[in-house]
Amino acid sequence: MSHTALIRSHRKPRRSASTIAMRAGVAGGVLSTLAVAGASGAANAAEPVTQTLELPTLTADLATQVAQSADATQQAAANYELQAERDAAAAKAAHQAKTDLADAKKKAEAKKKAEAARKAAAERATSRSVERTTLAATASTSTPATSSTATGSAAAVVAFVKAQIGKSYVMGASGPSAYDCSGLVQAAFKQIGVSLPRVSQDQSTAGTQVSLSNLQPGDILYWGGAGSAYHVAVYVGDGMFVGAQNPSTGIVERPLSYDPPTGAVRVL
Fold first, then answer.
1. CA-based nearest residue to 241, from 178, 157, 176, 117
2. Are 262 and 195 in contact (CB under 8 A)?
3. For residue 146, what pLDDT is reported?
4. CB environment 55-88: b (16+ within 10 A), e (fewer)
5. In this structure, are residues 145 and 217 in contact, taking their beta carbons and an 8 Å threshold?
6. CA-CA distance, 259 to 266, in Å (whole number)?
7. CB-hemisphere CA count at 13 Å for 124?
8. Torsion angle of C-alpha atoms 123, 250, 257, 185, degrees rounded to 10
């Protein structure tokens, strides 16, 4: 027996043919896969890679939401426009109301002033009426000048004014066909050489103030205050006067009670 007969052999056991064949097949498959992968990698390296992105499909619900959002936006814009129109209309109405109020205040103030003027005029008229009534009563209880027949220059003045009775009253006229009140008085004294002022206010202070109870023919009668008279005439005796009264009557002869004078002045 060999000296190595009892020593285990270090050789690997022989594989069976089927095992070898199976392993060869596996290896071949692996190599084939690697070859295909390499070829595919080479092909991919040679051609550019193109990536396609797919957009989401617009569904019916999303379209409805978009439409509703658009409607809401349009409605909001319409509401803003309507509100702007309302604000503008309110501002215009406020401005018009302010203007109307100012006009109403002006009209009320004008009406108030007109009413005050009317009352003042009525009070003046009443006062004048009372004054005339008082003067008429005084004239009726007093005896005028004792002489009813004028003499000298006074007679000439009386004759002149009586000769003008029936002529017209014209504001600013001084004869010979028409006169106003002070124009008649001035002309009557002018023809006897006496120069008098032109207007009633000045004629009422042109001579010596005399009482209405002591009148003489030729005295100048005046209505209103001395220095502010608004009418004049000539006393002709017997409680009568001649004057250019107004456009309706013209130059007339009237009793003192017809329109009692305020005072009188004597020039002659």
1. 157
2. no
3. 41
4. eeeeeeeeeeeeeeeeeeeeeeeeeeeeeeeeee
5. yes
6. 20
7. 7
8. 100
Q: Which amino acid is at 178?
A: A
What per-residue confidence (pLDDT) applies to 252? 98
Structure tokens at 157: 């003045």
Angular region, 209: left φ>0, alpha ψ -120 to 50, beta rest: beta
- The structure tokens 């426009």 sit at 81
Burial label for 136, CB within 10 Å (0-12, 13-18, 19+), is: middle
Backbone angles phi, psi at 51, to 5 degrees: -110, 130
**pLDDT at site 125:** 62
Nearest alpha carbon to residue 159 among 199, 191, 182: 191
**Residue of 264, 133, 248, 149 lying closest to 211 (CA atoms):** 264
State the CATH architecture for 144-266. Alpha-Beta Complex (3.90)
CB 149 within 8 A of CB 129: no
Please state, in angstroms and rounded to a whole number, the distance separating the CA atoms of residues 244 and 233.
Answer: 7
Which pLDDT score, from 0 to 100, does residue 46 have?
47
Question: Three-state DSSP class for 139?
Answer: helix
Cα–chain center distance at 168? 48
Token pair 């006897």: residue? 192
Q: Per-10-residue mean pLDDT for the chain, 268 residues long?
A: 50 52 49 48 50 58 78 83 86 87 85 78 62 51 52 95 98 96 98 96 96 97 97 97 97 97 96
